[in-house]
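Case study 2.
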Amino acid sequence: MSFFQKWKPVAAMIFVEFALAVVNALFKKVLSGGMSQLVIATYRFSIAAIFLTPIACLLERNFISNLTGRVVCSLFFSALLGGTLTQYFFLIGLKYTSTTFSCAFINMVPINTFVMALLLGQEKITIKCKSGRAKALGTLCCLGGALILTLYKGMPLISKPASEAHEVNHSTKNWIVGSSFLFAGSLVWSSWFLIQAKIGKEYPYQYSSTAIMSLLGAIQSAILSLVIDRNTSTWFLKGSLEISSVIYAGIVGSGLCYVVMSWCVKKKGAVFTSAFSPFIQIFAAVIDICILHEQIHLGSILGSILVIIGLYILLWGKSKEAEILKDSLATEKNGQATLPVTSSPPCT
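Prediction:
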């Protein structure tokens, strides 16, 4: 394997995380200017659907013939959880906090998904195994980090002039409100992964399913926006920043990034792809400090460190478990196993 082929997935995932950090920074800027969260979501999903539909028609020409009523119903709830509600909660949380802080809750999604799968019986923890202990420890670390992020703001870490600090500083009340919405958004997004896993088995067309989900998400966001706020003036984009933000978020954030992540999952697996999620927070911190001039607090740093450590411990446990299961299946296939293969891999 050449050097370029070896490092291409790594470079691709770094690009994805940087692009998503830019999306969050742009949204923070337009939200501060008064743009509606649901209007942002509606435009973003609409542009993503327009961008992905030609790709789906080109690469997945048989997707319509396999589109059943059951699949459409599943995609509707997938759009509601993974699109409309996730965007709404995250954007409200982003408005009340900062780009770096909101990205910390994105890192919690794999942990939340694992806990939900554990409660639903889709995952198991075997404490006797190293992989089981790693998954348990990673979950506890991440939950501890989430509590610190939500309940402890801490002292500011960057000295700023009094006038500038007054502009960017968030009250403790707003911080807790924003944290609550961000945590709710991470829970809703985590539940989407469980639903999407079932959809993928019934309807294995990634581009078309995402295009349909984006279209349904745009419709849901538009209806919810009209119910909450009937002021039609909020639908008119003001200035080049709002226009460029929704176009960039739709094409790059919901279009290209999804295509690249799907390619990386296919090439290197889900664990490899998930391992890059903390990079979005690093890029967001650089953008926050250098461009948006946001304040960084001690609670954000401590909580984020615990979340990232917990994430990598969990991913290591999952990776170790996958290796053990793969070796066990290979041994069974060669007729060397003495025990039947079960859903749980043997311990090491």
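Residues 162-169, 337-343 have pLDDT under 50 and may be disordered.
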